[in-house]
Write a structure and sequence with these properties.
It is a single chain. By secondary structure, the protein is α/β, with parallel strands linked by helices. Helix content is 37%, strand content 19%. The chain contains twelve helices and 14 strands. It has an eight-stranded parallel beta barrel, surrounded by four helices. Strand 13, helix 8 and strand 14 form a beta-alpha-beta unit. Helix 4 packs parallel to helix 5, helix 5 runs parallel beside helix 6 and helix 6 crosses helix 7. It is globular. The relative contact order is 0.15. The structure holds ligand RRO.
Amino acid sequence: MIDPERGHDLIKKFAKFPIPNICTENEELRLNLKGVKLRNPIGLAAGFDKNAEMISFLSGLGFGYLVIGSVLLNENKGNPKPRIVRYEKYLSMVNSMGLPSVGLRKFLRNLTKNKARIPLFVSIAGNSVKEFIEIYNFLKKFVNVIEVNLSCPNTENGRLFLEANNFQILARELEKAKSGLVFVKVSPIINKNDRDNLQEIIEISLKHKIDGITAVNALPVEEKAISVGFGGLSGKLLFKYMLDTVSFIQENAQNKLIINACGGIFNEKDAIKAFLLGASTVQLYTSLIYEGPYVVCKIKKGIYEFIKKNNFKNIEELIGYFTKIEAIN
Ligand code: RRO
């Protein structure tokens, strides 16, 4: 009933303290991402906790990992309000936050003050290669997974590095600086140009030892109710674009890139579809808003029951199962 951003700010005030895990965990859902051990494959997507203020609380909601950020080098206020609109009927929303960030130093203070009991991934954003690398070098001492945001729909430079020539330069520098896992987050593919470009991003990622891709960020759309007139669409309406993009990456990367599926994951069926198509993990944000704090427990329970009912040994067997069958046939 209240303004969406005011609602989010209220949650932030409440979610300052640690809570014990509200769900049970199952051994069958454990996953090892190149040495990063996850208790389950459900992650919180970037954007919910941009400034690392709710880590200890969010750790208790049953996630296997949290993506915190995106963080910028310097403080940034973001776009003018209103900058979030909900489409309740479609379980979706549009945001045009415009990368608000407390900046790297304050972010790190928050990060070290709040105790996370699960692996933390940090999403980083920047306006230049130099800025990305500076943030990366600073953060790599504290976290071992970085998600490089190539696809913010709401700032002038937000998708600059999704352009293959620019990404090539960034990927080369990241490779030189690399320690730990590096993912890149991309936009959904909707046309042939997007496909061709993503194909190049995949090739460059493989060449420069990027570990995986998070697919997808919000879909750029026009929206008059938002102050700047445009934003990124997330939630149920994004789901089919996410599946398309995940399939495309799986086909073109031949199992050499880890895929995190992000976009419209509301229940176990959504998550299982993504796993079968090749995603190793799924990430959610919008469904947490519409379904509430037990959404992660519900999804995990559903996946566990599916695994048992269909005689899979564990989640690892589910990942890419469709593509494995195709290969046999
Ligand atoms: O802050 C934002 O406007 C924002 C970012 Br950085 C992003 O990556 N995706 C999004 O939907 N919003």
